[in-house]
Design a protein that fits this description.
Number of strands: 0
Radius of gyration: 22 Å
Strand content: under 5%
Structural class: mainly alpha
Number of domains: 1
Oligomer: single chain
Order of helices and strands: HHHHH
């Protein structure tokens, strides 16, 4: 991809510029959440598309807009549980103690 000045942009520059391109530490949940939020933002930003969805769902445009706003909070449901490194190390230590005894 090239920049407006005609120079080429590296992958690192693209990732720094656009949030949706992700990074190496991005989880599958975070990536899907970003993708869903971008989609809903596009629906909300384009009136014709919002109108199309409202007609397809037999709802008013205002109701459809509200539903899309609500879906942007947690579009993929609650985040998966994360384990701290301390918890992981503690579990391994307990497993080793159980195996020794």
């Amino acid at each position: 991809m090239s920049a407006p000045g005609g120079g080429n942009l590296s992958a690192e520059q693209l990732k720094a510029r656009y949030v949706g391109t992700g990074h190496a530490d991005l989880s599958k949940y975070e990536w899907l959440t970003n993708q869903h939020r971008d989609t809903y933002a596009s629906f909300l930003g384009h009136y014709d598309q919002l109108s199309y969805y409202a007609v397809a769902q037999n709802e008013s445009i205002g109701r459809t807009r509200l539903e899309f706003w609500k879906k942007m909070v947690q579009p993929c449901g609650p985040p998966p549980p994360t384990k701290d490194i301390d918890k992981i190390l503690e579990e391994k230590r307990l497993e080793e103690e159980q195996q020794e005894s």
